[in-house]
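Exercise: predict the fold of this chain.
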Amino acid sequence: METAAVSWLHGAMSISVREVVPILRMFDVEVTKRFYVDYLGCSLDWQDGEGDRPVYLQVSRGELVLHLSSNHDDGTPGSAVLIEMRGVDELHSELRRKGYPFLNPGIEMAPGGGREMQLIDPTSNRLRFWERARPA
């Protein structure tokens, strides 16, 4: 008799991953909101917790969804997230116009012939906005 786990290993069950959402560590909730909402242009979708309690929140912009957590066991400061996108030049221009005093990102060549703009959030997490190379 085959168990569910063995059946899954043999492909008999239908498994589908819908979405992967990174959980990034944060320390200062207000500074984090200022970066993700005011600078990056994300919406604050929801927040659980406040004050001295751990805070967990979701921000999004278009198809980009990120979770941010002050729980000591969620994420590691300095993590990196690769965000595949189109329109890196437009995003770069938008962010430069905001005059954020803590960052002045550029666009560089990236692996695979693509182009990339890296942002570092207040907890030193790196957001790597990567655009694929256009076919020749």
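Check your answer against the key: The mean pLDDT is 91.
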